[in-house]
Amino acid sequence: MKVGLVSPYDLSVPGGVQAQVLGLAGYLVNHGIEPMVIGPGLPAGVEGVDLGGSVTIPGNGSKVPIVIDPRCRTKLREASVGLDLLHVHEPLMPLVSLFATRAGPPVIATFHAAPGPVGRVAYKLTAPVMRWLLGNTVAVTAVSSTAAAVLPASVGARIIPNGLALDAMRSDVHRDPDRVSFLGRDEPRKGLDVLLAAWPRVLEAVPGATLTVMGADRGDVGVEWMGRVDDATKAKVLGSTAVFVAPQLGGESFGIVLLEAMASGAAVVASNLDPFVDVADGAARFFPVGDSTALAKALVEVLTDPAERGRLASVGHEVAARYDWDVVGASYSSLYAEVAS
Predict the structure, then answer these.
(1) How far lies 242's CA from each of 6, 76, 174, 182, 209, in Å?
(2) Which pLDDT value is given to residue 72?
(3) Rounded to an integer, what distance in angstroms lies between the CA atom of residue 185 and that of residue 61?
(4) Structural domains of the chain ordered from first start
(5) Do residues 57 and 45 make contact, with C-beta atoms less than 8 angstroms apart?
(6) pLDDT digits (tens, 9 = 90+) for 37-57
C-alpha cells in the first residue's frame, strides 16, 4: 500500500504536526506500507515531494509556516498519482491541506489543533459545510478529545493520539537531582514567563537547583539557555533532568512534550490544562494555569522529595509506553487497511 502523508506546515521547521508526520513515516516504512511525505521544506533523506517555500503567518497564539502559492495544487495532484490514499494533517489549513483533500485519492483527515477563540468561531460557522470542505475525506481522526471537541458530530471523528519513539528518548546520561528543564518556543502561550517568575522562589528553597531552557534564548543570567536543539540533544537533556516543567497557558490539544519527558525518566510538573491532565493520566504534578506561586510550590515539593520524584517518573514511563509508535502506528495501519478495502 502506498500512502501520502501531507503536512501543511514547513517540515524543516520544528513543530508538533511536522514531528508527527515524520514519525509516522518512519514507522510505516518498517511495517509494510510505503509512505510518501508531501509538504513544504522536505528534509534531506526523507522520501517524498517538496512543495516549495513557506511563509510564516500568526495563528492560534503561535507562528505557522505554510504555503500560499496556489501552484502547489498541481504538485499535489501529480504527487498523488499512484497512491492508494492520502493522510492529510490539519485538513482545513490553507493551502496545501485544503488542496490535498481534493487531489484525487481517498483521504484520511487528522485534526491536531485546539483552536483559539477565532478558530472556534470559524469551525462553528463552517460546521454545516464541513463535509464539503473535507473533499474526498472518508475517515476523520483527532489526536485528542480536545481537538475533536470543536468538530461537528457529523464528521464522526475517532481519537488516535500522537505517537513518539520511546527508544529514542532513552539516554544513559547521569540524572541530576537538582536539574529542572523546559522545552518550547518563546511564545506567550508556552508559559515560559510563568516559569521564570516562579524560579526565584524555587532557588530560595532549593539553592542548588538549576534551570535549563530548550527552544528559547533570552540570555538572562542564572538560566542555561540552549535555544533550538536537535532530537539527540533533547533526549540527552531530558535524560539528565530531575523535573520537567510544562507551564503552558493554553492553545494545546495534546501534550507530546509531557510524554517525551516521561519517556526520558523525568518527573513532570505541568499546568492543569485539560489535554495535559488527560494525557498524563495521573503521572504528573499539576498546578493552576498561569499561577507562578503554585508552580514554585509544586517544583520545590517534587525537587525535595526523592520518593515522589521516583514515583512520578515510574508511573510516567508506563503512561508514555502507551503512545509508542508501535501502538499508535498500528492504529493508523488498521485504519489505512479499513479505508483501502
Answers:
(1) 37, 45, 10, 11, 10
(2) 95
(3) 11
(4) 2-163+324-340 (3.40.50.2000), 167-321 (3.40.50.2000)
(5) no
(6) 999 999 999 999 999 989 988
